[in-house]
Amino acid sequence: MQAPVVYLNANTERQSGRQAQVANITAAKAVADIIRTCLGPKAMLKMLLDPMGGIVLTNDGHAILREIDVSHPAAKSMIELSRTQDEEVGDGTTTVIILAGEILAQTFPYIEKNIHPVIIIQALKKALADALDVIESVSIPVDLDNDAAMVQLIKASIGTKYVNQWSEKMCQLALKSVRTVAVVDGDHKEVDTKRYVKIEKIPGGEVTDSEVLDGVMLNKDVTHPKMKRHIENPRIILLDCPLEYKKGESQTNIEITKEEDWNRILQIEEEQVKHMCEQLLEFKPDLVITEKGVSDLAQHYLLKGGVTALRRVKKSDNNRIARATGATIVNRIEDLKESDIGTKCHEFKVELIGDEYFTYLTKCDNPKACTVVLRGGSKDILNEIERNLHDAMAVCRNVMFEPRLSPGGGATEMAVSVKLAEKAKTIEGVEQWPYQAVADAFEVIPRTLIQNCGGNAIRTLAQLRAKHAAGENTWGIDGDNGKVVDMREYGIWEPEVIKQQSAKTAIDSAALLLRVDDIVSGVRKHE
Ligand code: ADP
Ligand code: MG
To answer: Are 224 and 316 part of one and the same domain?
Structure first.
């Protein structure tokens, strides 16, 4: 049998074996180093220039990586990693990058010593399984109905963010919005904040004026200036079809020879629109909202019938309105039934804020969808507040599914590190070393927390290690002064799922990068 032949063209770059691994590890470390100063309560912000010339101010690991333009494939894979973390659990994106970078850095010497990557990967997997056990053993259950406990939990998550100064407000917003959209149906729980919580940012005003509406708000005005802009207890119809004359397909040709025929065509159009509006008016709605257009003629008939109309509403907005008002979105007017009409909303109003009109559908009974109105100084600040609020909602949502908390401030990571280091001694053969490397790598989280607030890392880490070796596994770092504290007193706890997911994502991706032994590129290198 012949060996397979790989044809490479003249421009192809190729790095193989050790060279490829070294390049990957270096790139991953470089990414982790950028992110390092963004961990913890004393995190620094990064100012990023996006390709369109805008600026992004943030300390969210994921948001930073999303904006920067990297070319190395390993660095790209790190970015993907933070995206996974963001999608899975919504927080801990900075942690996971730092952790993955450190694991690679710690295993690097063994690559250099020619331990086969497969053995290293085996050790990593074993370490991951043990780390998950340790995380479970240090976690405690939480009571979801205890408001104070929930607020404290959310505070720990946003205490590391720019919104820190308004943390009380942000906690309330996150808790209220998540509770609004949570649907618990026996064993089935649904908390879809992505789909049913909309964050609307309106520059101006004070951050403390932000609120969670008991309903939804849209950046829209009524279609006709004479329509009513304030209605109490409206009957609402939601459509996803246009209120216009249904035009023929693009292939139709009409040939007209007499002038009366032309008039007749126009007349038919008018009759159709009138008929549609009459069908609607039979249901005595006060408000008709459609995702498509509303023609001038239709507006006329609706206005005459005392109905207010909104048009070209986004599908996603319409879905939220449906959940909040109890209406069903109808796509053929003929199919409309009394039960499709929404009556759960008790106030409709259009308000002018700044120079834009906003439509409010509020005072809904048990809305199940909501809008969070964020106010604040400028667009950039509002964008960062929005990202922070997302983290807070993610934390809230996570504990609703899995009501268990792990100690924060690096305590969980230190516990993992100490336990794995003990266990490493019992492992036979070369696998022991990479396993020990993972144990060392987990120390990076408490170390970074100490460094970011200007503490003495070596001395404090030694103290912390001693505590954990004595079995006190709730001790961690006070992120404000870099001293060791007991998290039971200091009160920084995080959802267990976030800790578990960070460990999983970090170790998996480190293993993935180590498995690579060739980087082949068809792209010509730029000068
Ligand atoms: P991530 O994007 O990973 O969530 P953060 O900047 O939010 O990054 O930092 C989270 C880390 O900071 C967690 O390990 C958490 O336990 C820790 N932390 C949060 N608040 C404090 C605090 N006040 N003191 C010490 N550590 C803290
Ligand atoms: Mg966080």
So the answer is: yes
